[in-house]
Amino acid sequence: MKPVLELKNVTKEYPGALALDGMNLKVYPGEVHALMGENGAGKSTLIKVVSGAIKANAGSIVFDGNSYDSMTPALSKKLGIGVVYQEFNLVPELSVAENVFLGQKLTKGFFINRKLMNEEAKKLMDEFGIDVDVTEEVKNLTVAYQQLVEIAKTISSDVKVLVMDEPSAPLTNREIDALFGIVRRLKEKGTAVIYISHRMEEIFALADRVTVMRDGKYVGTEPISEITQDELIKMMVGRSLDEQFPVVEKEIGEVVLEVRGLCTEALLKDISFKVHKGEILGLAGLVGAGRTETARAIFGADPKSAGKIIVHGKEKNITCPRVAIAEGIAYIPEDRKKHGALLGMSIRENISFIAIKDISRLGFVSRKEDAAMSDRYIKDLSIKTPTKEQLTKNLSGGNQQKVVLAKSLASHSDIIIFDEPTRGIDVGAKKEIYVLMNELAARGMAIIMISSEMPELLGMSDRVLVMHEGEITGELTREEATQERILGLASGIR
Amino acid sequence: MKRLLKKFSTLIILLALFILFSVASENFLKVNNILNILRQISVLGILTCGMTFVIISGGMDLTVGAYLGLTGVIAAKFMGDMGLPIIAALILTLLIITLIGLMTGCLIVGLDVSAIVVTLGMMTVVRGLAYIISGGLPVYDLPEAIVNFGQGYVLNIPIPVIVMLLIVAVMALILKYSYFGRYIYAIGGNVEAAKLAGVAVGKITASLYAISAFLAAVAGIVLAGRISSGAPASGNGTEMDVVTAVVIGGVSVNGGKGSMAGAFFGAVIIGILSNGLTILNVGEYYQQVVKGAVLIFAVAFDVLANREKVKRIKEA
To answer: Which chain B residues are within 8 Å of A71, Cβ to Cβ?
Structure first.
């Protein structure tokens, strides 16, 4: 069988960085081809070259036997290359059906045949087992369903090659099943699927073959049946990860933060817990259980309707993030790009952003201390960048996360709330984040870690609190915590 | 090369115009004419400073033109009819206009309504007030000191130019080197992240409109001095010139990007265009067409310099 899509020696150079370095890839019809690599390995660049969003400097793309030295978005669409990006391209105000057929004409006339459109959309949704009302406006759907609509939109036109960039990131387990169903259905139809994900379980459950890339280079392609998880990680990071979750010697001390009877208008009911010095407290639960809401209420980002926050034994009235920061509380948000990093500003400006008054005299920032501060954290957290003047938006996810963390560390926090600290971060960088968190705990900081990743919760937490629909349904020690018990509590089964 | 082009696009346009007019007219490049240009843009230049802060924060202030009118009227009333001492009258005028600006800012923050709408409304209100207080007619008999402030020279340099350059320098320093400046960029770039970083976004945003109003009041006094009266209609439509200057200067209307130097060069470009075209005997109506075209050209230049070229594909 001939490959439907082949990349030969594709190279893409940015000023000062080689994003793709002679990359090769062969994708056959009807296969699910996983593409793996750490963040910054060049996966996103590769997709953009295939979709025509950017142009490679060298190499060629062979599609169905025809060779092209570059793509354009129009050409790739015409050939039947569909891409599901991490960011949605949906119009929130339009219905599901309208979004699915956006830019396509179903009838010859001038007016939209809404009935036909809805029928066609329904047919498509049924075919792929997506349970959604096609007349609903997209803005009313959960993020997970928006993702499924995005996928449906891409496959509504005939695609021969479908690229999916971390399609499962916003999905919970049930919707992941739907996603798998879609992928398997496409595979039966002979569509080639290039599947990018950081989640190992998915790769092993879904893919036929896996191609690994590292630093923009092609590392190798293996059938999934002939490779183990450890071997795969080794290929990705170029070294073997002895232990994903490092154990550190640390002492758990006195209570640093206590939350008593915290409630919010919308969701939270009587949340009470304590965090100790040197402790990592895991906060588990399904999407919508109220974990982020708890963090934001503690941090003063959202209003509380009742409850007390006690920091170092004293009750504090935390009305806004500024007060929380002054009390030594830091919040590392889940959505790095929207809430965490100042993407249009440099690394230096980000790192010193919260602590900026400490290094200012008469309102003016000391340039020396500003530079010294960012140099120190770039080194401490090993942020990979050619210069501290690099714009944060040009960094990989893992490095962006480190910049966001540095921003909070620089402001002398001793209580850090991590919200999904490793979301969308590759294996190698994940471990770095874990090591950092452990170090911070060992230094005597109290850490609350909101996470949806089971291995992370089990591997990192000294204690796990489980939430369900705005309430705490259970507390488990490190010894008691198992996947089954956490999931049970998270589903509301006590 | 491309990066240089992008970074200095405003400066390149400025130089191009400079060379063009120098070649086209021998009167252009005389010291007196250059000072003349700077004097002509002094009001615009002062207003540009406040507007740059506001636009970088992701906002917009359409009230500045109306402030010019009201400032002249109330300052002249305080000094003439009410006979207040000049210093007291000036302080009172600056205070009143700044408070109106602060109120505008508080409305924007408090109601969470778009700045364009609120400042558009305030523009009409402020202009109306200027007409009511003045009875629709210019208020004359300004004290000698104010007239001198608008028309005088120090070391052969017009006083308004000195005032403008001082304000531009101070505002540039604040924007670039103070933490306040960095907060402004952050609010315009990512307001949510700024809030979570403990920035008092509401207070800072409101203060920017007060700063813009304060500078407009300073500009209004300069203008009143220059025309020797407080005219309620003065500054009509100036807000659009200010926005044009700021945008030509490379400040993004989406917020988060731009510099004081760029915006100032934008104002200079507008000044050079008016002056150069007038020297070349181009009529006022044609000048408007040229100014509009330069605005679009400047933005297009910026965008194109930043865009990757899409090479045509070859099918094998």
So the answer is: 313
Helix (H, G, I), strand (E, B) or coil at A83: strand
Query: If you measure CA to CA, which chain B residue comes closest to A331?
Result: B196
Mutate to test the interface with A, among B5, B183, B196, B312 (most CBs of A within 10 A): B196
Q: What is the DSSP string of A331-353?
A: EE-S-IIIII--TTSBHHHHHTS
Nearest-CA distance from A362 to chain B in Å?
Answer: 9
Interaxial angle between packed helices B42-56 and B201-227, expressed in degrees from 0 to 180 and rounded to the nearest 10: 170
Residues of B in contact with A15 (CB under 8 A): 3
Give the HSE-up count for residue A158: Cα atoms under 13 Å, Cβ half-sphere. 4
Inter-chain contact B179–A338, Cβ cutoff 8 Å? Answer: no
Please report the pLDDT score of residue B308 as a whole number. Answer: 42
| Euclidean distance between CA atoms A42 and A81, whole angstroms | 19
pLDDT digits (tens, 9 = 90+) for A390-416: 888 888 778 888 999 999 888 888 999
Rounded alpha-carbon distances, angstroms, from residue A351 to A131, A150, A168, A391, A486: 44, 35, 31, 12, 36
Answer yes or no: are the C-beta atoms of A83 and A104 closer than 8 Å: no
Model confidence band, residue B306 (pLDDT cutoffs 50, 70, 90): low
- In angstroms, what CA-CA distances link A139 with A124, A130, A134? 20, 17, 12
Distance from CA of A492 to the nearest CA of B (A): 31
Task: Flag whether residue A65 sits within 8 Å of chain B, measured between CB atoms.
Answer: no
Residue A198 and residue A66 share a domain: yes
Query: Which residues span the domain enclosing A360?
Result: 255-490
| % of chain A beyond a pLDDT of 70 | 96
- CA-CA distance, A83 to A195, in Å (whole number)? 10
Nearest CA in chain B to A351: B197
pLDDT tens across A350-361, in order? 999 998 888 888
For chain B positions 162-221, those within 8 Å of chain A (CB to CB) are: 173-174, 177-180, 182, 185-186, 189-190, 192-200
Chain B within 8 Å of A59 (Cβ-Cβ)? no
Specify the pLDDT at position A266. Answer: 84
| Residues A231 and A270 placed together within one structural domain of the fold | no
Q: Report ipTM for this prediction.
A: 0.80
Whether A407 contacts chain B with CB within 8 A: yes
The answer to whether A78 contacts chain B (CB < 8 Å) is no
Say if residue A226 is in the same domain as residue A347: no
* Mean pLDDT of chain B, nearest integer: 88
Would A67 be classed as within a structural domain? yes
* Domains in chain B: boundaries: 7-19+26-304
Q: Tell me: domain B7-19+26-304, CATH 1.10.3470, correct?
A: yes
From the list A204, A253, A206, A256, the residue with the least C-alpha distance to A229 is A204
What's the confidence (pLDDT) of residue B12?
A: 83
When the pLDDT of each residue in chain A is averaged and rounded to a whole number, the result is 86
The DSSP annotation for B240-291 comes to: HHHHHHHHHTT--TTSS---HHHHHHHHHHHHHHHHHHHHTT--HHHHHHHH
